[in-house]
Amino acid sequence: MSRRRHGFPTERDRGQAAVVGVALLLGLTVLAVGGLTATAGSIVEDGASSAAATRVGDDLATALGPGPGERETTLELVSGTIRVVNRSVWLLDDDGVVWAGHAGAIVYTDGDRRVTSFAGAVVRSDGREGRLIAPSRIAPANGTLYVGVPVLNASGADGIATGGHRIAVTLRTDARTDRIDLPEGDYRVAVETETPAVWERHLQERGATTTRRDIDGDGIPSVVASFEGERTVHLVVHDVALAVEVGR
User: Fold this and answer.
1) Do the Cβ atoms of 89 and 199 come closer than 8 Å?
2) Which residues is 211 bridged to in the sheet?
3) Alpha-carbon dihedral angle through residues 130, 135, 138, 143, given to the nearest 10 degrees
4) How far apart are CA 81 and CA 88, in angstroms?
5) How far apart are CA 75 and CA 57, in angstroms?
6) 158 CB neighbour count, 10 Å cutoff
7) Residue range 176-224, pLDDT digits in tens
């Protein structure tokens, strides 16, 4: 005689259901642990990438810091690329271009993180926002506009990719400094950059009124900074011979 009556489960049925329930719970637990592991790995990787960007920013600020003479700086990279790109700085007055420097920039990229050393400043961005981690040497003071600009004459590799391997990249620089004094006038400084909002904030904090303009028509905007009143200009050009090499 069957023990199942009126659709009620038997002890055997209940036992099978319990086994299935435990299996489902175990499966969910494995999925949850896998998700936590993936999240933790992402956090670790993100933290390592951020730390690498910080180190590169500090190294670039050191390599292209003010002052003449020879300098050697080694960057330890585990991912990403580093390259030299064309960027310009202009000094303008009401008649046009007073001085132009094809200054060049060093750009480190790792995923959506980017560190750019250009025009004496270092900018770090992560795809959402950017910030200045080393300020430029462009500033007004006592009726004078001080403009300090490294101009890179690069040799060696234009770009180096790590390919996911740890490598050392050495920047060898030899700088000489030229000083140019310009008479009192209404001057503007234009900085070509792919992070114009960062430069606008920086120059506005130094008392400038800013606009954007593509001066050379290459699609990359320049932030044009105007400082109130007529000023003399003290222009310091650091002519930097830069060699980018793999290894120490």
Assistant:
1) no
2) 224
3) 120
4) 22
5) 10
6) 10
7) 999 999 999 999 999 999 999 999 999 999 999 999 999 999 999 999 9
